[in-house]
Amino acid sequence: MNLAFWLKRFSRALYFGLASVGSVVLLVTFSPLVSWWGTLLAGSWTDPKGDVLIVLGGPPLSDGVMGYRSYLRSEYASWAYRDGFHQIILSGGGSPIPIAAAMKDFLLCHGVPADVMRLEMRSSSTRENALYTKALLAGTSVGRLVLLTSDYHMFRAKRAFDKVGIHVLPRPIPDVRKRVTGFASRWGAFINLLEESSKIGYYWTRGWI
Question: Hey, which residues does 87 pair with through a beta bridge?
């Protein structure tokens, strides 16, 4: 009798588990959930102009080459530079090559002059992006600051900068918005949104946002 009871409970749990997985598959694949979620985290899409553009690097690949997120942010930074920014701060560490250095090479190849770029190459997290950029800016008159990062990352990034006393205007770029158009890439975007939401919760509990 005990065996039959536990088999029944297992079957019920399996049924609800499979039903839940199926529901998630349907939501991610056929609903606007991922697009809505990414847009919510992005906030305003006003593309503000300013004096200093702060660009956050994403995780590098194992050999120090830029990953997709850093490439996309660098590409949009090269376009944003034409809006009249006087200085670009590239923030991101890593080894063997700091991601900020790789992003600088990319921007140089796209016509951005070396003398307008400053590198912050110690950070390994969004909080450190904010802290080390603040140290880089200390004692200088910088003017209007604009923050550029991926759409889904902007919610946490802007608040992390605000928390350390750096007021930035958000300039999100379409990352999830691009990937949501393809069924295969949509799942990668969904995983990024799950990870980012957990990080938002962690930052909130630590008082970093």
Answer: 52
